[in-house]
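User: My advisor, Dr. K., asked me to get a structural model of this assembly before our group meeting. I'm new to this, so sorry if the format is off. These are the inputs:
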Amino acid sequence: MSTTTHTIHNFSAGPCILPPSVLQQASDAVRDLDGGGLSLIEISHRSKPFVAVMEEARDLVRSELSLPDHYEVLFLQGGASLGFLTTAMNFTPSNGSMDYAVTGTWAKKALKEARKMGTAQAITSSEDSGFNHIPDLPGASSASAVHITTNNTIYGTQYAGDPTVNKPMVADMSSDIFSRPIDIERYACIYAGAQKNMGPAGTVLYIYDKRQVGQTGRDLPSYLDLAVHADKDSMFNTPPVFAIYTSMLTLRWLKGEGGVREMQQRNAAKAACIYSEIDRNPLFNGYAALGSRSVMNATFTATDEDHTPLFLDACNAAGINGIKGHRSIGGFRASMYNALPLSSVEVLTDVMKEFERTHG
Amino acid sequence: MSTTTHTIHNFSAGPCILPPSVLQQASDAVRDLDGGGLSLIEISHRSKPFVAVMEEARDLVRSELSLPDHYEVLFLQGGASLGFLTTAMNFTPSNGSMDYAVTGTWAKKALKEARKMGTAQAITSSEDSGFNHIPDLPGASSASAVHITTNNTIYGTQYAGDPTVNKPMVADMSSDIFSRPIDIERYACIYAGAQKNMGPAGTVLYIYDKRQVGQTGRDLPSYLDLAVHADKDSMFNTPPVFAIYTSMLTLRWLKGEGGVREMQQRNAAKAACIYSEIDRNPLFNGYAALGSRSVMNATFTATDEDHTPLFLDACNAAGINGIKGHRSIGGFRASMYNALPLSSVEVLTDVMKEFERTHG
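Assistant: The format is fine. Below is the predicted structure of the whole assembly, which you can bring to the meeting.
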């Protein structure tokens, strides 16, 4: 195996860093699952070992997010992109509508898919200001539910907590689930692609209030009907076994590290480290407005645009990976998901300080 | 690592046996992709290494199936179960219909999903005889396309070759793709879940004639629109990187072994071995009708039902795994996908012979 692993600081926006112990165990299971002589990926998904994996993964989601019994947990496929359609189909009554808080590219895409199958509209938007902040969510909606995107990876903005609105919320939490405790009862449904805080790309988590599905009056296609999947214990069809197994390992790790409260503290410490340097260092500017800054993705630019490639070179030389900003806003993005250690953020801020010394 | 791997003969119906070299390489990549110091599953899907993986996987499908340039290749999510809906949506004009050859459980499910979004009907069915044979496909259909399921894993039946009909076919080839050459021009679309001959569960392959999509007059949801995925080179959203990488490895292995013509010969040899023993041995009966027998899944029962658990015990003692028949028809099922060596089938037929000697 490579001896360089420890020198890479992985700030990728997703797929992204996972705990080294999880990668090791996932790798082992692809060779031989628990010493049974067969690979994780060549056994039946209905075999006892895999059924146990699926149950443990679902149970860990329940315990780590303190879900009440009336919430269901599913691991499906298609990512949050198919989730845009699935959630709209399952939570918009055929004679009702859904409100969308448009806080970035992904929220816009969610609204676009919802409009293909029913009535949906923007209740608020920050598009006119380049999605650089989270606009206030009106407290009252006349729709059946309100859809939010809790963290916006591209722009580095995030709701500071669980918003308050007079209707059940449907939330795309792909990029900040398990980063902090949530007030679950505010949500009819939470969905999240695995490839940030939970595991590899290839599975999407749905958490929803069982009492609020099956109420739309629609005859849904089977794969897009959450109740169909729940009825089969998340095994309506062959599940993506590797992605679910690795997510289960990450959830075990999360639990072992102290759970979402511990992650919240660690993430706050990492965010404080990077944002204080962005604010202090005259060579850099933060992109997201104060009050809307994401704990998961810090976006910033070089004050002098000519510095952009030079700073990327400096990061590269320090083993910092994945720091280039999304093409929509340019500059830099430091994604600091649960598995990223504070020490990696400190390496980055050291490079920023050194860059100020040499280029300031 | 386990030292028992070599003694297990994996006849699982899917997820199923994969080449040992593929499992080894996939395991290594989860730890460190090509010595780059990062895991396959923690790098961006838009990074050069993964874009290269996706392109190689798609190119290998093209070369190994000798696809003309007007066929597109995509690796998506949702399995064939979402494919039932996706293919119906993409190939049934809003004022047209699709014919379905109902040859088993999966074909029935495909028809059910198609009916949720348009006009679809059975053109033929073998349900009345327990799906024990492939009924003749009428040569003429008045629908826009004809859907077939080329191999029926549960019942152990398979079309002997590419059927002839006067309309483009849409084929679920989940359980026999890459087992033999195909006459691609007969098909508007082929789709296949990866977890038999191609790789782990978690991705589904679509191959389709680009000239025949976008003709339905429907405004499709983005994830269910094949043209949307093609426009983004199969990266409309984050792809299931591990499943695609491992599928690419299996396709490399396939090519190295001699391709689909070589697989066809090996599979014929394995099928001849098991079926000759089923026909010779008075303690067993074949389930599928002669002429409809599957090269991939041999289904058979014990002449004396009391022998069923005893024979399963004998298989277990010989390291034979996954031989229990599907609950719908009971008995036994020997799934002999590409990666299963003839030697494993010989171990099974030896156990059958020994069982005759001890229980006959």
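One thing worth pointing out at the meeting: Chain B touches chain A through 69 residues (CB under 8 Å).

User: Perfect, thanks a lot.
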